[in-house]
Amino acid sequence: TVLVTPSRVISMLAPLEDVTDIGFRLLCRRLGASMVYSEFVAADALVRMVNRSLEKLTVCEEERPVAIQIYGKDPVAVRDAAQIVVERARPDVLDLNFGCPVKRVAGKGAGAGMLQNVPLMLEITRSVVEAVKVPVTVKTRLGWDDSHKIIVSLAEQLQDCGIAALTVHGRTRSQMYTGQADWTLIGEVKRNPRMNIPVIGWLYLFVLALS
Fold first, then answer.
1. Residues of the chain with pLDDT under 50
2. Which pTM value belongs to this model?
3. Active-site residue flag, 100
């Protein structure tokens, strides 16, 4: 993962399910990653105290700074899960996943499925920002499909919810992980004079920060 700022290049490990567990994160930190992200964790499972999900909150001091990423579609469950994450893992950053395109997540309205219900996405984001004392960030996509690329206006709305940074995958949900990523829209988000938080472009396991 590579984070590029005007003055330096910073490596960051992006979140990826079944890949970025604690062992992989520690390895990447030892190889020079400046920051690491966990696999995403289902909010509903955390609220139900499912052991497999709670295990994903295991963090050691050697891997910090570390972000824990969660996802869900119920504002109360996501808020409560965020509080559980902060209490148990004490992450440096809490990341909300509104970008996962797989059917078992997006098809149920979570992850990228939130792109079809922006008011609910914003409600969840606001509730989490208000509930925890760590920086909250968001990862999402350009939109649901080619006819609904809403990221430019959505970025402003998410910023207004109080997030500390925004990561954008340059594809729609319908593209999944295939086809050409559209970096022009990420550029539009970055050039928007109203945007004052870091904007990060997502490249699979790599991220490119635009500010």
1. 1-8, 205-211
2. 0.88
3. yes
